[in-house]
Amino acid sequence: MTEEDQHDDDSLHDKKRRRIALACNACRTRKSKCDGARPKCTSCTRLGFDCVYAHSATSANVIVGKEYLVGLEDRLVAVEELVKSLAQGANGQHQTSPYHGFGPAANPPVSQQHVSPGRGADADRAIVLAAEGETGYFGPSSNIALVRQVTKAVAERSWDGDTATQLNSLAFGPLDDGRPMPDTRPLDTRSNDQVPIDAFELPPFETLQARVYHYFQWTGILYPFIHPESFMATLATVRNSVSDVRRTWLGILNLMQALAHNIPVSNDVEGGELYYRRAQMLCDQQTLESINLEVVQYLLILGQYLQGSQQTMKAWTTHGVAIKAAMQLGLHSSEASKNLPQVDQEVRKRVWFICVLLDRNLSMTFGRPPAIPDHYVRLPPARPFSTLPDKAERDSVEFFNQTTTLNSIMWKIIERLYDGNLGCGEVVSLAETVSHALRIDQELVEWECSLPSDMTLVLPVHLANGVVPSRFQTILTLRRHSVHLLIYRPLLTRLLSWDGHRVPDASTSTLLSRASPNAAESTARSATECIEIVHTLLLSGDKAKRTLLGAWWYTLYYTFNAALTLLTIYLISNTPATQPYISGRLDLADIDQSIEKSISALGQVNPGSSITGKCELFLGRLLKSVRAINELTQETTAAGTSTNQPAPLQLGTGVLAPSGVATPAATAGDMNWENFLLDPGQLDDFVFGM
User: Fold this and answer.
1) Which residue from 56, 70, 238, 413 lies 20 to 30 Å from 154 (Cα-Cα)?
2) pLDDT tens column, 522-535
3) Where do the segments described as Disordered lie (predicted)?
4) CA dihedral for 136, 137, 142, 147, sign (positive or negative)
5) Is 299 inside any structural domain?
6) Residue at a domain's end among 53, 74, 95
7) Between vectors from CA 569 to CA 490 and to CA 572, what angle results, nearest 5°?
8) Cα 567 from Cα 571, distance rounded (Å)
9) Helix, strand, coil abundance in the chain, percent, nearest 5
């Protein structure tokens, strides 16, 4: 045999598949070829499956490569070193002097710098300070900022100066948005991480069709940026095969199913998580590199799902990518789509409006600058897809357009009253704040007056009289209240910061005396009506009425935000230095009752959810302290004395706690402020609106 023949023979052998003694479970189930690579074969790596090699009792001749054994030894050594370091860290933490998290410590333990306590005995401890580089920014329009301001005010009105300073540092400590959060999913959900997932697997067609209908009836009717007829036509082809369907379309289909498991409540977290993971596998980085309209739609619906999950931080990042992709396609431009069919033009326009809507929403809730300036929104209002639309489609389009107008007002609020959420220290002057607030409030009133008859706002008295509004009316009303609460918050937080140590000058005092009473009264009315609507619908016992509220995480935001605003007004009314500015216009008993209703309503928003439980617990503890401050103020007023530094207070008995449980009396010295102040860094996972 010549040397050339020998080379050809060797090449032939190289092309033959190497025989292996054992295939992994995933390849055996799929009846596909397995190359036996350890710890994960090539096929499982490519498809994202978990690769498990199961040895049967008769597999005595299985040969394990030396490289695999060496790898196992290396991994074992790494695990042993990790366990050893964790044990040493735990011992060091117990041996050091007590560090309770109040203010900056000289050399805080490493574990306290980076790790948040888990859902064990220390689950309700206060803020754990993180390294500055790991913090997230939450600007003035966010609920996180309001939580800090309210807890700071409670501290200043309840404690001596030294303790108040410590608590202020705690309330204003950096928030770690990257630390590991407790896994509050059911155990069955966590076990999915070890179960192989087929990204192309779909439920029976009838079930699939029902879930798609559910999406268009629940979410799609409020955010109509996917053309129903086109989507259902593609869905019909899936009955036979998924091979001819685009991966991004399948990703959207899986996210629709995930939302169906999560709206109106999280009745099946495990199922929603499964479809979310399938969508991720289908639309990997390589798939999303080729930008088209369907990719933007996928990113938008992904962001919607993430808002109701325990991965809300990803919603901000995902939406940022969606905006850049939309601009790349020219969705903001009428010129870019003028030669397209009418339906395509309408879909592109609506996708751009959804980008703007979610941009305003995330900017408001995170307190971060909007990515889309208002002058970028120049396209005409949305129109029905069909020439002869039915009432449902007409109402959906009208609701969508009214929401777009409301978001334009929200832009002005963030830009003019919150300085664009830039947080550069350039605070808007009081005169400008009052002027802008009055002008924007008038614009909001004009928007209300322009609403068509079937979109008029809901009043609590309507519900009390048995009137059942539409879901469009209910959600539009809650959105309006949420926007209105933002208008006068800068004015109220200025008053909240004056605890007697900081006294305004004569001109400032005069301006506040004129503007504050109406501002406080108007804001309290909006917050009270918002809570009353949610409380009535959730506690009615009628499932049909409950569905009027929409997605549970939006209801949670509206209720929590309204309660925080009422607590702000409550504190201002209980402070001698600020009482004169809003006195005589508010009934504190009604405000107290509304906050109680918000706490009982939160327990029904999404029963069994740890997120709603945290909000319920936080408001209950905060209300307890504000009531105690109120009692102290009344006693001081009755005694005819005035003091800027109240004595340690006595908390009253029978104060409402979460789920209506009465709590025993406690003195200020016995009060565990670490348990009172829930970690605001945990609150950022669920304060979403619109």
Assistant:
1) 413
2) 999 999 999 999 99
3) 90-119
4) positive
5) yes
6) 53
7) 90
8) 6
9) 60, 0, 35
